[in-house]
Write a structure and sequence with these properties.
- The structure is a homodimer of 89-residue chains.
- With 89 residues, chain A is mostly helical.
- Chain A has 4 helices and 2 strands; from the N terminus they run H-H-H-E-E-H.
- A two-stranded antiparallel ribbon of chain A has the order 1-2.
- In chain A, a hairpin with a 4-residue loop joins strand 1 and strand 2.
- The model of chain A has no long low-confidence stretch (mean pLDDT 95).
- Chains A and B meet through helix 4 of A and helix 4 of B.
- Chain A binds a DNA duplex (25 and 25 nucleotides) through helix 3.
Chain lengths: 89, 89
DNA sequence: TTTTTTTACGACACACGTAACAATG
DNA sequence: CATTGTTACGTGTGTCGTAAAAAAA
């Protein structure tokens, strides 16, 4: 089942163009990033990044996912802010 | 940290007006619902439901959360559909 | 007695960080 | 050799369902 951590992880990899750099961003290690991305790819049923020699590049599905993932996390931030401020939709 | 399962759980409780009924909806048991809602309330820092004698009622924060939670889950459904259809944002 | 939520508990699964590996430049 | 992603493993944390409790109608 889809997890928000997977989404945050994917976004970090997409934006930093690297598993190791994403790991630093999220204060964790490469191996955790690796398994999360692989599990995401298993769920999607297709690779999200092309592994090149020394860098990675998002696939077409990766590009699509990124736009939606950003929106979802923005909505969640908005929700959290609304809850503590007691603001109404 | 916020979890999508918590959100689904909260929505089920809100819509069914009961922990037990939510449990049936989600194919689980009351106790799991109870701990998830309590953890959500701990994160929010305030109760989301008023426990009445034989029923529950959402608090003001609960009402606010519900609107946003529904939107978040809708966005996620949209994202999942877009990924398998390769549709662009 | 039935229906509700809460709490305790044991078993299993998952997530995390460490470490080692392979491959590239 | 430095940097990349992958894999294996031990430990801890979490999740799940069962069972029992307490309260109310």
């Amino acid at each position: 089942m889809l997890d928000l951590k997977d989404l945050r992880c994917f976004i970090a990899v997409y934006e930093t163009r690297g598993f190791g750099r994403a790991a630093k961003t999220l204060n964790t290690v490469q191996s955790n990033i690796s398994v999360r991305i692989r599990r995401l790819e298993d769920e999607v049923g297709a690779p999200l990044f092309d592994r090149l020699h020394r860098s990675i590049r998002p696939t077409a599905k990766g590009e699509v996912l990124y736009r939606y993932a950003v929106k979802v996390l923005q909505d969640i931030s908005e929700m959290e802010a609304a809850i503590i401020e007691q603001r109404v939709a």
